[in-house]
Model the fold of this input.
Amino acid sequence: MINRRDFLSLAATSAGVALAPAASEAQPPDGAAALPPSIAALSSMRSEMRPITSEERGLRIERARRLMTDRKLDAVLLAGGTSTVYFTNVQWWLSERFFGIFLTAKGSDFVVCPHFEEERAREQLDSGPLKGAAVLTWHEHEDPYALVARGFGDRGMRSGTLGIEETVRFVFSDGIAAAAPAIRTVSGTPVTAGCRQVKDAHEIELMRLASRVTLKAYAAAWQALREGMTQSDFAALVSAAHARLGFQGGAGVQVGEHSALPHGSVTPQAVREGTILLIDGGCSVDGYRSDISRTFVLGKPTSTMTRVFDIVRKAQDAALATARPGLPCEDVDAAARKVIADAGFGPDDTHFSHRLGHGMGMDGHEWPYLVRGNTLPLAPGMTFSNEPGIYIRGEFGVRVEDDMLITPAGAELFTPQSPSLEKPFGD
Done:
């Protein structure tokens, strides 16, 4: 499964952008003297990061067990991906070989793992909350799903209900269903998203830091913007700025008429005086993401550009003022959409063609979503992108995006809002 952030990174790579190294390696480059002064002047912020502990992940598993009991699930399957890291800190890629962690409601967790990967699996399990969990291994010529059935049987669960985490491959859940037909498989999202969609104070701290890092990187790159640069040139500056700050990060960059495509174009683009740039990206801080968009002009914007920007900012303000605990998610989207439609850029999604926002956390996009039809009530600790936009095909697009926290009293943004097209980061 490829999400928007992965797509933008791949697009940037195909355009020749040197993306930042992995977060653990994202240190200021030796060639700092060759960087623009605004980027060379940046220093690492990694010392501000407090990593999530094994004890914290253990508390997450306990919460998952309570949700399993409430939902009448006997177990949940994790098979790599973000939820696996969230609960266990086991870093495992999605492979055709079945590797599964089964969290059970009663605490008798077990793991099914390829035999040749056992040592690597135990090394990671023993450094986290699942230290000592049973590991059942299968050889390449054997059926891993038979081991799953055995694991359930050994725990007195020959029948029961298994929640499947949403990114688990169909071939895995299908194999389990065939090997253990008495086990009913259902969506595990009420458990996994039920835990992940409300952030605790430590998670919010990491997300605030990620947003501050990205905004600082954007501002440094903007100060180095020059006419004639391509979108790849500017994206490389954003990545270099994130690396100087000590984290992996980057942005997709769209120039001129290409900014009217919300997720952009791979068409080669060059910056000219008076053209709009729309940048959209973020970074990862101990696995927690930022997602920020800024729109600005090299030189002086037209009156139309300024008017559109002002409308979009008012839409973002309306969403921020509307969001509060207990309100349905869709009402926040509606508040921003009404501002844009009332200003003549409606109806519905004529020019504001996407939802207002998505959940934020360890994935750039995760549950829940600020979109029409989502009646889920907001709760303190939920985090979202707040990103209204107006896109005029063939001319330009404007989007302002900041990450938003639902508080007991309402909502707040992690970063200062963009004040204008000419001074997107203030004075």
Summary: The chain is about 35% helix and 20% strand. Confidence is low (pLDDT under 50) at residues 1-30.
